[in-house]
Design a protein that fits this description.
The complex is a heterodimer of chains A (348) and B (441).
Chain A: H1 2-16, E1 33-39, H2 44-57, E2 61-66, H3 70-78, E3 84-87, H4 95-103, E4 108-123, E5 131-132, H5 134-141, H6 151-156, E6 168-172, H7 177-189, E7 208-210, H8 213-222, E8 226-231, H9 232-237, E9 244-246, E10 252-253, H10 257-265, E11 268-269, E12 278-279, E13 293-301, H11 307-317, H12 319-327, H13 335-346
Parallel strand pairs in A: 1-2, 1-3, 5-9, 6-7, 6-8
Antiparallel strand pairs in A: 3-13, 4-8, 4-13, 9-10, 11-12
Helix pairs in contact in A: 2-12, 11-13
Chain B: H1 2-15, H2 20-86, H3 94-118, H4 125-147, H5 152-222, H6 228-288, H7 293-308, E1 310-311, E2 318-319, H8 322-327, H9 334-359, H10 363-371, H11 378-411, H12 417-438
Antiparallel strand pairs in B: 1-2
The chains are: A alpha/beta (348), B mainly alpha (441).
């Protein structure tokens, strides 16, 4: 018996010399209470995953999020019925003072929480890899290029054999942050070919309109020759090929978390004093940046926000939170930006 | 023939002549021979035990874990398909649907990886090939279900039938055969250990007796009490035998503790977890199939067997003692165990509420209560229950891995230690008696 004990002591001593196993994910620092947020549907999946994980770990907390769209979310926040708002575009110049007034003790700030790359998913016979320059994309979506073996597409894809299938574009019928960011990209990088400006509602003529990303991706899957813009998660989970997009540095970049992160890293922070609004610069990008990205923010009061909001956002901006979002097809915030967001949350 | 017998008798007589050189030679030879026997047998047996520990750790235990994981992944795969069918045409549930699709793909990859690992066991080849055939049929049914629109329910019945009547029984067979192999591996190791300890103690004691007797005889015959070489040899022998026996007993007890306290509870909990996933999917199946009582009954059966043990259905698995005994144990605090039971009870209440809503015609509300992530919604409450179970499962798996690496650590180098130590002894004995022989030249 004593021998066994001695032996075990020896074992434990030896085991202490072993290399330490990797640390488990940092546990969530819980707060209690109940908060409600509303807004962007582009981030709804990520927020749902965060809510579920947070509530599982924290028995006394309840978080709710209603996916009513960025506009309605900001309106509810300004009216005081929401503790935070999810939005794909920052508050407009008229709304910022109203939001500041709602917050009282301090301004309302924007915290980027997750990046949603936008994929150009396509369905073309014999083609699983495609490169498209911004002006080609603009011409496709305005209906000037009508066939897959058009010379412009062939110019972008030397050596690829393209069939003569007619192009069928698919766009969103409903108001969406994805449309907003896609049209912003086109307006900035191909203004000559894209005269429709930017906005959450699709203005170009032609193509098929579908309500919701689910239906867009089904429409692409069903139609030979279809191409549409949709959140990367939908294209990835439906196993659709995604086009590599030409960026302002002249490179065609394949969609990946790192490439999307690189694009967001290059964005300038236009907010001050803890407000981390980003202005994405489509014209000055690094060679490995994928330009079609959507950054989604949480709008919160800098001072006076409930402790649960701070705790919840601390989890969302942590590495564990970011990887929970990545599992659902989002791209995580690039490390430098993530640290800034974490600091801003800590200062709430 | 008589000449050979004569010759043998002569040699033997000469060996046991009472004259001193002959006696000396006899003692020395016997001692060296015993040492050689001990060296060879202990070394070989230690090597065999080491190999058997490796087999347990690198083959038998992982195979058992893979088979348990396969059963679990199959159960969840079908649960996700049910979720996809349920959320198919509802815009407000698009997020839930994409999550189900992602999880289905993850489980599908997990199933493929497990099937590939299962192929590494030769004796399971046929079972695995059969399972792969059923898997192909299942995937075809799932494809039909997901593209059938309104006719999804009919195709889904086919899919879930293939899963429950063909796939899960095949996975259960694999699981049973791998558990059997694990038991056999442990039994074989136990037998080898027994032999090793016997040899170490038996031949070791014989060697010690011979060494001590040799020294005593030398002391009496030559009046030299102190022989450093022989004393060293004796000390070395003791220093070998005691640790050898200790090492063998230590790793045996560590590994069998690991099996009883970590591996077996881990496998049992994995089975219970798979059943809980399947039972939770019954809520979705009930709604998809237009409130078919069969799925409500199936849920009740599975829920009862989870709560109290027993058989979970005519084609389903069985759990001994239910969740209380499978989750409980020396490694789980009573609080954690009660959390698991309470959370399962909460899910059960949710299921009953949803069934009530559906039967009362409030289908939209029922679906909302099923897919929501608020506390009190079935989807959240199940995730809450599963998080508790997952923590315990992970802890047990880590415990077993730790025990295994401890056992391997303890056995490191032992096939060679007897060679080194006894080699030295074999060298020292003739050295010690050489001087005494010199007196007779």
């Amino acid at each position: 018996m004593r021998l066994r004990a001695l032996g075990l002591i020896a074992l434990v001593a030896l085991a202490g010399c072993d290399t330490p196993r990797s640390e488990a994910a940092t546990p969530i620092a819980c707060a209690s209470g109940k908060i409600a947020g509303q807004g962007s549907s582009a981030q709804a999946n990520a927020v749902s995953a965060w809510i579920r994980n947070y509530q599982v770990s924290c028995a006394d907390a309840t978080v709710e999020y209603a996916s009513v769209g960025s506009g309605a979310g900001l309106t509810a926040f300004i009216a005081g019925t929401g503790d935070f708002a999810g939005t794909d575009s920052p508050l407009s110049a008229e709304d910022q003072p109203k939001a500041n007034a709602r917050c009282g003790a301090g301004p309302a700030i924007h915290l980027p929480m997750v990046v949603g790359p936008i994929a150009l998913a396509f369905n073309v016979a014999g083609v699983d890899s495609l490169r498209l320059a911004p002006d080609t994309i603009a011409r496709i979506f305005t209906g000037r290029i009508t066939s897959w073996n058009d010379q412009e597409i062939r110019r972008d894809n030397p050596g690829v054999s393209l069939p003569a299938t007619p192009i069928r574009t698919v766009h969103r019928a409903d108001s969406s942050g994805t449309t907003d960011n896609f049209t912003k990209f086109l307006a900035a990088t191909a203004p000559a070919d894209w005269p429709h400006g930017s906005g959450s509602a699709w203005k170009a003529p032609g193509g098929t309109a579908q309500k919701g990303s689910n239906r867009v991706v089904s429409a692409i899957e069903r139609s030979d020759g279809a191409i549409g813009y949709v959140e990367a998660s939908y294209a990835r989970f439906h196993n659709l090929p995604i086009a590599s997009v030409g960026n302002a540095a002249g490179k065609y970049v394949t969609l990946s978390d790192a490439a999307a992160g690189s694009m967001v890293s290059g964005a300038k922070i236009t907010g001050t004093a803890g407000d981390l609004q980003l202005a994405i610069d489509y014209k000055t990008v690094s060679t490995d940046a994928y330009p079609l990205v959507l950054v989604t923010y949480e709008v919160v009061c800098k001072a006076g926000a409930p402790g649960l909001v701070k705790s919840f956002l601390t989890y969302a901006s942590s590495r564990t939170g970011q990887s929970a979002a990545t599992r659902l097809g989002y791209a995580p915030l690039p490390d430098a930006l993530r640290d800034q967001v974490a600091q801003a949350v800590a200062a709430l | 023939m008589p000449a050979v017998i004569e010759a043998t008798r002569t040699i033997a007589r000469r060996a046991v002549r009472p004259e001193t050189p002959a006696r000396l030679r006899l003692w020395a030879t016997l001692t060296v021979l015993t040492a050689v026997a001990l060296l060879v047998s202990l070394s070989l047996l230690m090597a065999r035990v080491q190999q058997q520990v490796r087999i347990i750790g690198d083959e038998a235990a992982p195979q058992a874990a893979t088979a348990a994981d396969l059963y679990f992944a199959l159960s969840d795969m079908d649960a996700q398909v049910a979720r996809m069918v349920l959320t198919a045409d509802r815009d407000e549930l698009a997020g839930s649907q994409i999550d189900a699709l992602g999880t289905y793909q993850e489980r599908s990859r997990q199933v493929d990886a497990d099937v590939q690992k299962a192929l590494s066991a030769e004796s399971d080849h046929d079972r695995v090939l059969e399972l792969m055939g059923h898997l192909a049929t299942y995937r075809e049914r799932v494809w039909q279900t997901l593209t059938a629109g309104d006719a999804a329910a009919g195709y889904y019945t086919q899919a879930t039938n293939v899963l429950h009547l063909d796939l899960l029984p095949a996975a259960k067979d694999l699981r049973d055969s791998s558990t059997e192999r694990l038991s056999q591996a442990y039994a074989r190791k136990s037998a080898t250990e027994g032999w090793a300890v016997t040899v170490a103690v038996g031949l070791g004691a014989a060697l010690l007796i011979l060494l001590v007797a040799l020294q005593v005889w030398l002391a009496r015959r030559f009046r030299r009490v102190f022989s450093p070489a022989l004393l060293t040899a004796t000390a070395l022998t003791v220093a070998l035998i005691i640790p050898a026996v200790a090492v063998l007993t230590l790793q045996a007890s560590r590994l069998s503790e690991a099996r009883d306290d970590s591996l077996t509870p881990f496998l049992a909990l994995s089975r219970a977890r798979a059943i809980s996933y399947d039972a939770a999917a019954d809520t979705s199946r009930f709604l998809i199939s237009d409130n078919l009582a069969y799925y409500d009954d199936d849920f009740k059966r599975k829920s009862t067997c989870l709560a109290a043990g027993g058989s979970c259905g005519p084609t389903a698995d069985e759990i001994e003692g239910g969740l209380p005994s499978v989750v409980g144990g020396p490694d789980v605090s009573p609080f954690d165990r009660d959390q698991v039971l309470t959370r399962w009870q909460a899910y059960r209440t949710d299921h009953e509420r949803i069934v009530g809503l559906a039967r009362g015609g409030k289908e939209e509300e029922a679906v909302g209560a099923l897919t929501g992530i608020r506390r009190g919604d079935a989807s959240f409450d199940f995730a809450y229950f599963d998080a508790a179970v997952a923590d315990i499962t992970a802890a047990r798996s880590t415990e077993f891995d730790q025990a295994l690496s401890d056992a391997k650590l303890v056995l490191t180098g032992w096939p060679w230690i007897p060679v080194a130590v006894l080699g030295l002894v074999i060298f020292l004995v003739p050295l010690a008696v050489r001087r005494r022989f010199a007196e007779y030249r």
